[in-house]
Specification:
The complex is a heterodimer of chains A (90) and B (91). Chain A has 90 residues and is mainly beta. Chain A has a five-stranded antiparallel sheet. Chain A starts with a strand and ends with a strand. Classes of the chains: A mainly beta (90), B mainly beta (91). At the A-B interface, β4, α1, β5 and β6 of A face β1 and β3 of B.
Chain lengths: 90, 91
């Protein structure tokens, strides 16, 4: 499970019908210091996170399990909106 | 599994139900000399691990879900043990 900053959202009218109603957000993976790490990706979001939010996301099969209907064709999903990051021991 | 060091945690109020009441820790993977190696990631704690602990981390959904009584839990990584030491044959 990794951290990412929500940077935007995807609007796609023509899509697989199972994606109907699924919020699709653009996210930039970041490390615990908030530094960008790796490539942007699209996350399915059941938690109403918004632009600028820091979230935790899972990929692979767990990405689909993050949604209420888990047989949705997604491979990355938001599982938590992060309130604070506490690094105590470098 | 991986060896990692707990370097902190994240707090979250809005989250998937299975994460309710769980501690989400930030872990730093370690190499064979127990030195930091690679990017940190998040893992759900099941052994009351604290910052500075060297821990045993599972990084795969099915292993992670063994810790939840919900086979559809969207969990990818869990902390399964606190490492006392690593012993090697020639030492």
């Amino acid at each position: 499970m990794r951290l990412a900053r929500i940077t935007g959202r995807v609007v796609a009218t023509i899509k697989h019908e199972a994606l109907t109603g699924v919020k699709l957000l653009i996210a930039q993976p970041v490390d615990h210091d908030g530094k960008a790490k790796g490539k942007q990706l699209v996350l399915a979001d059941p938690l109403q996170s918004g632009e600028g939010d820091l979230v935790a996301y899972v990929t692979g099969r767990e990405g689909a399990l993050a949604l209420d209907t888990s047989f949705t064709p997604v491979d990355a999903g938001v599982v938590a909106i992060i309130d604070s990051v506490n690094v105590e021991n470098k | 599994m991986k060896l990692a060091k707990v370097i902190g945690n994240v707090q979250s109020t809005i989250k998937h139900p299975v994460y309710e009441g769980r501690k989400i820790m930030i872990v730093q993977p370690l190499d064979e000399n127990l030195e930091p190696d690679g990017e940190t990631f998040l893992s759900v704690d099941f052994v009351q691990a604290g910052p500075g602990d060297t821990v045993l981390v599972a990084v795969e959904g099915n292993a992670a879900r063994q810790h939840f009584d919900d086979q559809t839990a969207p969990v990818h990584s869990v902390i399964e043990g606190i490492v006392d030491r690593v012993e090697r044959g020639n030492e």
